[in-house]
Design brief:
Number of strands: 0
Number of domains: 1
Low-confidence stretches: none
Largest sheet: none
Distance between the termini: 31 Å
Mean pLDDT: 85
Helix content: over 70%
Number of helices: 7
Shape: elongated
Strand content: under 5%
Length: 153
């Protein structure tokens, strides 16, 4: 049964991702610019250049994945899977968008830090969705119930 809290919270959490995903689909150039700033760092850690060759396509693909999974989360369709996908996409994007190590001024550093904290907060909200069993017992508890029922026969 859906509670009022889930009914309100999931769409509110998903709204940020829907907005960002649609923005990446419509305006990939803005997202590509941020990605280009990270390319030297990505090359240093060994990411193959072919993955970074078409940053516009990568931005659009990430935007589409973000918007679709956020819509699923908002509608309550496979919310745990959607939250897991959003977290997997959100964390690297938060780091790319907020390269605190590349800040040139204390104001810029503060802004990047704010972005990282916001990204971490969203990840925390997604973690809460992952932990939410929607009123159902966990798989471990269900397995124990089945074992106890079959042991009693």
């Amino acid at each position: 049964m859906r509670t009022l809290l889930r009914f309100i919270s999931r769409p509110l959490l998903a709204a940020v991702f829907i907005h960002d995903g649609l923005d990446a689909l419509r305006n990939p150039a803005d997202h590509v610019e941020r990605f280009r700033k990270m390319e030297p760092t990505l090359e240093k850690i060994g990411l193959p250049p072919m993955l970074t060759s078409d940053a516009k396509l990568l931005s659009r693909l990430a935007g589409a994945a973000t918007a679709v999974t956020a819509l699923g989360l908002s509608l309550g369709k496979y919310p745990r899977i959607c939250a897991l996908i959003l977290a997997a996409v959100n964390l690297p994007i938060s780091v790319v968008n907020n390269p605190i190590w590349a800040a040139n001024s204390s104001e810029e550093r503060k802004e990047y830090m704010r972005g990282l904290v916001a990204g971490g907060s969203l990840a925390g909200g997604l973690g809460m969705v992952l932990a939410d069993g929607n009123g159902q017992p966990s798989l471990r508890v269900r397995r124990e119930i089945v074992r106890a029922a079959t042991a009693g026969k």
